[in-house]
Design a protein that fits this description.
mainly alpha, globular
């Protein structure tokens, strides 16, 4: 652990978040452009990672690499919170959940929904459920720390709410055939961008409050 702390004392973990986000958009934007009839209300994120998209390999590779940078950022973020006085047990548990969520991203990028739907769906559930847990968990932890504003705590809850919204719509669409599929697709993009913003915002937070 000492060696890891030494590394993060020289490299601000925020940069891992920023680089990861940049790599993701390098894969996302071209995949959106070449996708046939792309729409936030009809095209799911997983559609960009399937063989029907000409740039699905680029998208999946960038998605996988982004997950690696997320793990690197979350490790540094965990050490940062501990330095600010938050309990090692609580922050450690949140890191494990965030790590598993990133593993879920890796799994989804390896198993695309068109060729390996079951495996893709399993990793999707891992990503969502652990994501919801760590976002709510960080909200609780940060609420106890004086350096975090109420707005920061609320932001965690809002992002987690977007995750929950998508899961609710996902279940409803499976229980009730044809139930507002366009809302499910749009909710998926909402939580994706909200989650990406969460990493960016916390990266900025670490830079401002060293």
């Amino acid at each position: 652990m000492g060696a890891i702390k030494k590394i993060y004392s020289k490299i601000n973990a925020s940069y891992f978040a920023f680089i990861g986000l940049l790599i993701f958009f390098i894969g996302l934007i071209p995949a959106m452009v070449v996708h046939t009839s792309f729409s936030f209300f009809e095209t799911h994120i997983s559609h960009l990672g399937g063989p029907t998209n000409d740039l699905y390999i680029l998208f999946n590779v960038c998605w996988f690499i982004t997950a690696i940078f997320i793990i690197l950022f979350m490790l540094g973020f965990t050490l940062y919170l501990q330095e600010k006085g938050l309990a090692k047990t609580g922050t450690g548990i949140m890191f494990i959940l965030a790590f598993l969520s990133a593993v879920g991203i890796m799994g989804m990028s390896i198993f695309n929904t068109e060729e390996s739907y079951t495996n893709h769906f399993i990793f999707e559930l891992v990503f969502f459920f652990t994501g919801i847990l760590y976002l709510f968990g960080y909200a609780i932890l940060e609420n106890k720390a004086k350096i975090f504003s109420k707005g920061q705590v609320l932001f965690n809850i809002i992002v987690a709410a977007f995750f929950l919204l998508y899961l609710v719509l996902l279940v409803l669409n499976r229980v009730i055939s044809g139930f507002a599929p366009e809302f499910q697709s749009f909710a998926e993009w909402l939580f994706l961008f909200a989650n990406l913003l969460w990493f960016f915002e916390n990266g900025i937070l670490m830079l401002r409050n060293k």
